[in-house]
Amino acid sequence: MVSPLISPKPLKLPGAHVVVTGGSSGIGKCIAIECYKQGAFITLIARDEVSIFVFLLVVLCISVDVSKDYEQVENVLKQAQEKLGPVDLLVNCAGTSVTGKFEDIEVNAFERLMAVNYLGSVYPSRAVISTMKERRMGRIVFVSSQAGQLGLFGYTAYSPTKFALRGLAEALQMEVKPYNIYVTVAYPPDTDTPGFAEESKTKVNHSSATL
């Protein structure tokens, strides 16, 4: 039997606990600000401690690398939920990019990008999913990229990590839909952020490349 696709009701943000990873700048920071304006309680998780504390609108700020140690990620999210209540919406926005021709990219860059862009979303999601299932409610957002829909020249290290998020999201949605948990994947284009500015410094010019 095939059940009809049913869109979830919009999450009411006033009073909701929203966790944003990678939220000290760029897209994550903008999402956190917008959710705050709509009345949500915010937990902002990022590696950049200086930027976190400059961003004064956030209710709770935590400095941790979400890609390195699952137990640490789990512990900080437990602390956040003790202070602000269970997580209603998790936005996985932590990410980084390295561009260049495949043979020119350092081998350890492939490992680093997979850790940050993929495991950096797996760990926070894994840490909140049990509570969401117990409550039978929750939203998880994975911020991918247009490079996660189509492989791009010079993005052999980056694109696969963003493709992986789609596979994770689709498989996870099948598991959690019976619990009224919904998973969303966002595919933003090039966006004027500090991360994009840094990425542009090493971007390969396809038109001038010799194939």
From TrEMBL:
Function of the protein: Catalyzes the reduction of 3'-oxosphinganine (3-ketodihydrosphingosine/KDS) to sphinganine (dihydrosphingosine/DHS), the second step of de novo sphingolipid biosynthesis.
Organism: Pavo cristatus
Reactions this protein catalyses: sphinganine + NADP(+) = 3-oxosphinganine + NADPH + H(+)
Protein name: 3-dehydrosphinganine reductase
Protein's cellular compartments: Endoplasmic reticulum
Source domain of life: Eukaryota
A cellular-component GO term for this protein: endoplasmic reticulum membrane
InterPro entries on file: KDSR-like (IPR045022), NAD(P)-bd_dom_sf (IPR036291), SDR_fam (IPR002347)
MF GO annotations: 3-dehydrosphinganine reductase activity
Keywords carried by this UniProt record: Endoplasmic reticulum, Lipid metabolism, NADP, Oxidoreductase, Sphingolipid metabolism
GO biological process, one term: 3-keto-sphinganine metabolic process
